[in-house]
Every structure is written in structure tokens, then in C-alpha cells.
Design a protein that fits this description.
Blueprint: E1 3-7, E2 10-13, E3 18-25, E4 33-39, E5 46-51, E6 58-60, E7 68-73, E8 78-83, E9 92-99, E10 111-112, E11 116-121
Parallel strand pairs: 2-11
Antiparallel strand pairs: 1-3, 3-8, 4-5, 4-9, 5-6, 7-8, 9-10, 9-11
Length: about 120
């Protein structure tokens, strides 16, 4: 089993940056692809980015492509999401999730963190 804990959220002005961290417990962290999702009020969980077990493959949603970078450090059991040029519409709760494939969805993700709030002011 893998337990995930997100951190790094907060309040930032439009145009600013945040780096989210997802730290996992458990010896099998490197066996899972990791994804970042976000959920705005009244909306479903939307996939933002994923990274494969070995960092060899990444995926970005069009909404964040060019503005965000996902990376992982398996030695630290941590995945990062660097978000730049933030917009008010990026305001949401951000969740990390572990799954078996890089092409994960909210339905196929196996383990979830509790989420971290990101608020972007205009």
C-alpha cells in the first residue's frame, strides 16, 4: 500500500509560481506512475500531468502544457509539480495519485492523497 501526502499549495497572485510536492510512504513507490489532478468547485477531477515509474515518460494536459513541469525523485519518494504563470482559473484542490500506467485517469488511479489547495488571485 502507498500513502500519499501533498504539500506546497497556497495563495499566489496571477503570474506567480508554486511547486507542489507529493511524498509517499511505502517501499513500492517506484513501482507506480504518479499523476497530478485538480478539482475546482462544482467540477470533476481533471488530470494535469503524469510521470512514469522511471521518469522516462511524462504527459501534460493542454491546460498546463508549457506552464508546468512534473518530475520525481524515487530516492526521496517524492513527485513534484512545478507550476508557473499561474492563472485564476488554476484555482482548485490539487491531488496526487498513484496508478499502474502513465495514461491514468481518475477512475484508474489506485491511491490518492488528501489534496492541497491552490488559490490564484487576479
Amino acid at each position: 500500500q502507498v500513502q500519499l501526502v501533498e504539500s506546497g499549495g497556497g495563495l499566489v497572485q496571477a503570474g506567480g509560481s508554486l511547486r507542489l510536492s507529493c511524498t509517499a510512504s511505502g517501499r513500492t513507490f517506484s513501482s507506480y506512475a504518479i499523476g497530478w489532478f485538480r478539482q475546482a468547485p462544482g467540477k470533476g477531477r481533471e488530470l494535469q500531468a503524469t510521470i512514469s515509474r522511471s521518469s522516462g515518460s511524462t504527459y501534460y494536459a493542454d491546460s498546463v502544457k508549457g506552464r508546468s513541469t512534473i518530475s520525481r525523485d524515487n530516492a526521496k519518494n517524492t513527485v513534484y509539480l512545478q507550476m508557473n504563470s499561474l492563472k485564476p482559473e488554476d484555482t482548485a484542490v490539487y491531488y496526487c495519485a498513484a496508478g499502474l500506467k502513465t495514461t491514468m485517469s481518475a477512475d484508474s488511479a489506485i491511491y490518492w492523497g488528501q489534496g492541497t489547495q491552490v488559490t490564484v488571485s487576479s
